[in-house]
Amino acid sequence: MKKGLRLLDDFRRDSGHCLWPAVMISFMLCIYAPLTYFITSRENFWFDFYDMMPPLLLAFVVLAAVVFALNALVWLFCRLSGMKAFGWWVVFELVEWLYIYIQGNFLVRNLPVLNGEDVPWQEQKYQNEIVLGYVVLIALCAVAVLVVLKLHLYRVLKAITPICIAFTAFMLLTTCLSAIPDYKQILKRNDIPVVTRDNLMNYSSQKNFIILLTDYTDSKVMQETLDKYPEDYRIFDGFTYYRNMQGMYPFTRFAFVQLVSGETYENKGAYADFLTRALNESPLLLEAEKRGYRLDAYVKDWLSFYQDPKGYTRFSNVYSGEARISSVGDFLYHWARMVGFRYLPYGLKKNITLRQDEFSDLMSVGAGGQERELYDWLDPAFYHILNTEKAEKTEEPVFKLIHISGAHPPFRLNRNVEYFEGEPSYESNMEATVTVIRRYLEFLKESDLFDNSVILIMADHGDSRNIGNRPIFFVKGYEEETHEIDISQAPVSYEDLQETYRRLLDGHSGGEGLFDWKEGDYRERRYLLYNNPLRTTRISEHLLYGHVDDQDSLKPTGVVYDYFELN
User: Fold this and answer.
1) Which residue has the higher pLDDT, 564 or 130?
2) Does this model's pTM top 0.85?
3) Helix, strand, coil % (nearest 5) of the chain?
């Protein structure tokens, strides 16, 4: 009995050595790291501060309790066995914290972007990071051993509690300081646009203006795919394929707004303000509304920057709604993977595959007074709908913008729009995209909607692993067109789109005269290049002096637009 009471008294004396390392480690992984992500990149998340904090606090308490219990068991084992190893165990926890803190905050210059692409971990820059990580770990261990030998383990152990408290307070302070410049936006309650499936299969029996926007779809690779399967050219009978079309941006965020509004973002002011104004004043949308078209927009996440509820509810399928997290467990699982991707050594990062937009799958929304089915942009989902559902018809003209994943990474689809295991291939994803396009056009024809529709099959950008300036652009006007596919090499650009849309609304065919430029014309075309799809530190202006396939003819002008505060 006395021995048990003595043991309990000793644990009370040493409990701080068990508790505060657990608090420090758990705070970093469950609070500091996710909040740092959120504060610096909140534009990439649909949820707000109030949505994320309860699950993160729960995770913090649970993880701290688990680590505390583990420390207590190690303490008890060492005490009962007479081993003097508990001090070294706690020193090891401190070294572990320092290592992952350094890894996640300082060794991140080559951190891959979370956009679904397969990361070439074999490249030298990643191998160098692995070696550097080992060097840092060995150095930390060596310093810890030297300190313990110099000061004695007892003194080090005595200092562990204040050290852990100080480090935890430091992380809390740096988190608060990083939030101060934009605290109003960080603490703002989200009332985001909710893109539902409403009216997805509803078309006009009179007039439809359809934009099928296939993401990441490169014109040159599309041409190669059609040459590989020549029978697929018949899909595009009645269309004109503008093979020399120049896009404007290499990634969706800015490209989408430009192709809808004609406005180019150049790092001036908050992007959300720019997007809201640009879409509200879009010549395309205003003209369609003026002519009595119902507006449908299936653009998934990219409307989340829209700051004007009256603006985005002009679309029949978009609602103002307060989103909820559908699964706390899955939410924390995604956060654990994201934190692990940043804070784990490079040798372990490759075992984590994720996309930052995976959080979108956890959105549950009550919109328009009831639960509604959210729009799923992935090719297999859209393909399934086309194969299982019928068209509904209305008398009013319909404008429909449908954004699907197209050839976007990860490259896991085959020609039958099925997921497969094996060597990833952009070309295989492109074949799947062609299949989806074929089925969509078949659906329109089967529903007697093809001839009374303007149809644009286009991409927001091309292959972003390269320059990304070659989006596909197929177009058919309202007039019944039965000719085989025409391929035009006219030097056209997404800068021309607003006038092109107007001409199509006026009844122009998709062929000659749709653009002011003809084959053989010389033209210098503008392109705005940046490298990170999630955060733009610099946009550099380029001019294309030749054909879009001639990447060497794309030259920087020397004009750059520097870092901006994203939202």
Assistant:
1) 130
2) no
3) 50, 15, 35
